[in-house]
Amino acid sequence: MSRENKNKIIKVLASLRDEINFLNYSYYTLDKLQIPDYEYDLLFKKLLSYEKKYPELISLDSPSQRVGSVSLDKFKSVEHKQEMLSLNNVFYSSELSLYMERLEKKLSIESKKISFSVEPKLDGLAISILYTDGFLDIAATRGDGAIGEDVTNNVKTIKSIPLKLIGNDFPKSIEVRGEIFITKRGFKKINSSSDREKKFSNARNAAAGSIRQLDSTIAAKRPLDAFFYTVGHMSANININSQTDLLKKLSSWGFKICDLNKEVIGQDGCENFYKKIFKIRDKIPYDIDGIVYKVNNLNYQKILGYISRAPRWAIAHKFPAEEKITSVENVRFQVGRTGVLTPVAVLKPVEVGGVIISNATLHNMDEILKKDIHIGDIVSVRRAGDVIPEIVSVVEKGLLRKTIYLPKKCPECSALLYKVKNMVFSKCSNTINCPAQIKGSIEHYVSKKALDIQGIGEKLIGRMVDEKIISNISDLYKLNKNVLKNFTVNSAVREDSGKEYEIKLREKSIDNILRSIKEKMEVKLSNFIYALGINEVGEVTAKNLAKKYKSIEELSKAKYDDIILIKDIGPVAAKNIFNFFKNKDNIDIVKNILKSGLFFKKDLKRKTDFFYGKTYVITGKLQNISRVQLEELISDNGGTISNNVSSKTTALIVGLEPGSKLKKANELNIKINSEEEFLKNINYEK
Question: Residue 391: which of 471, 327, 476, 472 has the closest Cα?
């Protein structure tokens, strides 16, 4: 092809791309239809025909790149150039008033004079998109705030997200943050689709599930949309002074901004907006769960700064949990990993906050008596914190209501139950062979805060225990390819024949499981102690035990009188620890794990003994250091962290919004240090 012809084709392609991108922007972002669908399809087909003939001329901003691409094996990790933060919440007007008081104190301005940019809080999936030289480069999920997953291919399929920024006044490199969602109408369309065997529980899960597809052609078929509301990293500053100006700038670059966003003044303005949106919540075409208030002035935002991983200049005002009426059809008892029985109400299915609820926790027998709940009653249910279903109250007593009784035997293994002294719950006495406790102990052992073994989830553990492949945590180390390759993880029914068939573990899944077990053969002693699942032994207690006893053998021989002397360990926890290691079955399990090759990381030499013999309690939200970092700083230098204030406490370290620990410290005349004062005294530098 001659240079002249090539230049001509490049110009034709550029013209087609620009025209189609403009039509997409008009329709998907501005909601304006410029030409009939037929004409649009002709343009798109023309573009595809040229690109098929000249694939070397396909550009990053070509609309053809939205149709999906080759499937990935897995998502790559992406480190955000600037951390993605979360928001603190308020639920009541009184809490919002306290927030306003804190703003006044920090800014020395009456809150009724402060301008706020207010916006609906979308119930979707947070996304960060890096644009380089104006082109969409990398799109990543929030992840843990610092590192997310690379979902670029999937995000490129969303037509309301620009592949190339409009204009030329954007920084060379910029992270733009927003929320990906699916409208209520789109959600119903997905779930009613005949090719979906399993239904999504709500629109948020549908959006998240679509973005986390390894095959982007699936994401391309889903009705995904996005609103944008802030920026992260920028290679150059944008000459703007307010949040509302930032939104206008984002819009000018081609990003879709929520049309309900508004600028208001003071708490009254915020609450009026909250009430207005709450009234029309059901009419809004997408799910929201509250309102976000942001201090509008960007200079004020800099002054206010951040608390741990949340900005001081923004707060989310959550809507109250939605309540619905249904009936209690039955009650079953669920057995946890420590043997505790929890009554669960079986409900007539009802939709609450976009999720079908058919079960709700009843907490314990005392709660059932307190709320006078019976089988057959008409009850009000909600999702506590928009997550856990619970019964609020009895609305109408059933005519044939039946009393709920605690069973005499464990529903999982038929062992006798016993009531725990001075507690409101009962437990299964079969601590070693109860299937529910075995499953729970293994789930705890592989969990992130314990040994963090990847690829072994609740369903897989359940099947392995039921099929007697594993009977305790030490059996995890006996797993191999021969054991797992014939293992049935599920069963399904063929649509064509109606016959049931077995689903076995894929070889790749088996390799991932075995590799993760092998990678976690060297662990911290404190993690292992926590992973054992001893009742009342949390992360802090496990760390204190690992500090006192330098090996698991040493801990197993510890006497009750010695354990009780360790700070932050009370008589109940001390008795549980002592009894755990006096149980031969537990000792055998630990020995088998160690025989499998698991060993403990050597403790690094302590930096100093600056805090030796001192016990600290932390309360409130920290601003200059994370809680984990502060705990490690004290622990690494010989100190002890406690969860409770007592006469043994050396000092209470107080951040913002301290809890009841501050009151107790004052009552006991315990020394109180502000976070700033404490860090200054130890010459801490970031």
Answer: 327
